[in-house]
Predict the 3D structure of the following.
Amino acid sequence: MTDYEHHSWEISPQRSLFDLKLRDTWEYRDLLWLLVRRDFVSFYKQTILGPLWFFIQPLFTTLIFTFIFGMAGIGTDGLPRPLFYMAGVTAWNYFADCITKTSTVFKDNANIFGKVYFPRLIMPLSIVISNLVRFGVQFLLFLAMMGYYAAQGADIRPNGTILLFPVLLLLMAALGLGAGMIISAMTTKYRDLAFLVTFGVQLLMYASAVIMPLSETPDQYKWLIQANPMTTIIETFRYGFTGQGTFTWGAFGYASGFTVITLLAGIVIFNKVEKNFVDTV
């Protein structure tokens, strides 16, 4: 057997459009964990409060929502207002961080991509995984607040839907990852999208059951709010842990299907664009 027959990698000029390169990504898993550590350390290394921002940001957001929307008299499905908003903010922040940071992957890493080969999918995956640390801290804060209000006699009744929590977490990550990769691929040609993402994500929050529960949404707009898969994810998250909110298997199936399609489309588009994005970035 000749020497060239002993190989681990095969470099070929043509690849199928639906080749997701998952095997290549798995082979570079050590690089993935290094990038996760880099993202976490670099973001807080030069901040005074460091990881305390994990607590400060959701607490301030919850307090502001409680004050502003409390005065507006918007219902919260019978939950204490801080707990209602903390549940929505915790779930929304993870999704928003994933889509916002993933949407600039090509632009932020153009120098690295142009010099070294590795599966480009590693970069957005590292962002989604590193954001799990922040979500974990905020989730513990939510649980502590839930325990406090339960001790105060609030009507909090966790139920079997809580078992869907790992699935909900995967859906949030997959939806943010897929949508972020689609936007990142588009920003290689249309730079203006990078400026619109943050603003657009903030607007989308108001159509995602973070501020107003689905039960309080006017009937003429309910279909529009339900079309956003994050509405079902947040409502299910809130319903599972507190017993208050709206949950149906039909809506959950729609959100899951929408997320899977978005993720697959994001990977396909991302892999297609990464072949020649250096020429346009």
The chain is about 65% helix and 0% strand.
